[in-house]
Amino acid sequence: MENNEKEVLFSVSHLKKYFQVGNHATLKAVDDVSFEIYKGETLGMVGESGCGKTTCGRTCIGLYDKTDGQVLYKGTDVHALNGKERFAFKKQVQMVFQDPYGSLDPRMTVADIIGEGIDIHHLAKNKKERQEMIYKYLELVGLNREHANRFVHEFSGGQRQRIGIARALAVQPEFIVLDEPISALDVSIQAQIVNLLVDLQKKMGLTYLFIAHDLSVVKHISDRIGVMYLGRMVELADSYELTTHPVHPYTKSLISAIPIADPKIARTSKRIVLEGDVPSPLNPPSGCRFRTRCPYATEQCAQEVPEFREISPGHYAACHNLDKVQ
Fold first, then answer.
1. pLDDT, mean of residues 118-125
2. At 227, is the secondary structure helix, strand, or coil?
C-alpha cells in the first residue's frame, strides 16, 4: 500500500520548540521539523543524545507547548485542544518513559499505578471490573496477578518497564510514544521488551513513535525511520530503504557503526568516523548544522539551510551535496 493510501494519524508541520536558557540564550531543541505518522505503523526516530528526539515526541503529544509550527492528530490541532477534547486526547495518546526507575511512583502499588488511568477515565464500572482489568494488562505484558499488590522497588528494571507499558495500555490508547524504552535495561532484557512491543502492536492495533539512539534496534522494530541531528530532521525513509541506501552523510555514519554479526562482511565493511564533537545546541552552526563534521561541506552549506525534500518516493533528505556523497 502506498503511503498516500494510508490513514495519517499525526501530521507534524514545521514544528519548533525553543527553550529560554538564562537571560539571553535560546536553546532550539526542535527547529522546523516536519513528518507524518500513519495509523498502525512504527516510526523510529534516531540521533545522538541531545538532538531533540525526546523534545519532539513530547511536543507532538502536547506535554510541551510548541514554539511554532503545527501538530495535527486526525486533523485536529493538538495544541488548540481544550477541556473535554484534551481529556479525550490524553486517553488516545500515551507515553512510555526512558527511566523505569524514575517514572513509577514508589509509594504506589502496581495495581494503583495501572489502575490510575482506569479511574481517571472511568473505564471500569466497579471495583471487581477494575481489578480484572489490572490483572489483564499485567498478564498482557508478561507479569503475574500476584505482582499487583507489590511496590515497584521489588522489581527489576525490565519488570518495571513492563509495568510502565501496562500503565500506558490500561487506558486503551491508539498511539504510544516510546521514549528510549530499552536504553536503561540490560542487553539481555532489551530484546524481550522489543518483542513484547511488537506483539502488543499486532494484538491491539497500536501506532508507535519509537525514539532511540541505537539504530540497530530501531531498524528491527520500525516501518520508517527519521534521523535527527541538532534539532533538525536530516533524513526520513522506509526502514529497509534507509538502512540499505542512506543518502545523508550523517545517516551513513550512523549505519556504518551498526555491529555486523558476520565476521567476513564485518572485515570488509568500512566504518565512517565523524570528526569533532556535536556543536552546542545553544550556538549551532549557520546553514546546515551538520557542516562542521561533514566531509562534503562547501561554502553553500555555511550560507543556506538545506531544504528537507523528497528525493525519491517516500525518501526525504536535507543536504546540498547529495550527488557528491558516497
1. 93
2. strand
